[in-house]
Amino acid sequence: QPRVAVSDFGTIAHAYMEAQLNNSPINVPNKCWLGLDNNTEKIKMVDRICKQMAEQFKNSEIGKQAINSKEHYAEFAFKSKVVDRIIKGIIDLVFVNPDGTYTVLDYKTNQEEIPEIYYKQLACYRQAVGQMFNIETKSINCVLFYLRSGNSVDITSECDKINLEEAVKEIS
Fold it and tell me: Is the pLDDT of residue 44 over 90?
């Protein structure tokens, strides 16, 4: 049966989330659909699932905060020095809260919710955002949003405990 690769599904889901946030057209790279071999029913199913996830995010508390923020950056590409290494990547979403703090939000398409596997990743993202926006990391929240369930998990306190020297070695 035609299937979308896990990484391609993530890319597709992120495109729907970005479109939802920016009120813009959905822009999915064509290569992401290749595994479906132009199977119209499968493409419609993926479209329906991603639309549901985007709508669920939009209606969640964290989604409302992001959409109503005075500033947000979806699919935020960065390159920053963390500890002694240059790391680069794409942060799913960074937004400014009404109180001036920031939130780094990472969408997850996993079926299982295992936040601890993302502590190091978001601790590094948090450090990079602090440097890029010239703000203290204590003013940056770290949140995971599980697209399949609609659950958000604030992992800020766990990110505080991460040894960044060890973390950058693993993610760079």
Answer: yes
What dihedral do alpha carbons 13, 18, 21, 25 form, nearest 10°?
A: -100
Encode 7-40 in three state secondary structure. HHHHHHHHHHHHHHHHCCCCCCCHHHHHHHCCCH
160 Cβ partners below 8 Å, 6+ apart? 123
Cα–Cα distance between 55 and 52 in angstroms, integer?
5
The helix, strand and coil proportions of the chain, stated in percent and rounded to the nearest 5, come to: 50, 25, 25
Helix (H) and strand (E) counts in the chain: 6, 5
pLDDT score for 82: 87
- The CA-atom distances, in angstroms, between 28 and each of 14, 46, 54, 72, 140 are 9, 12, 14, 20, 30
**Whole-prediction pTM:** 0.92
- Taking the C-alpha atoms of residue 120 and residue 118, their distance in angstroms, rounded to an integer, is 6
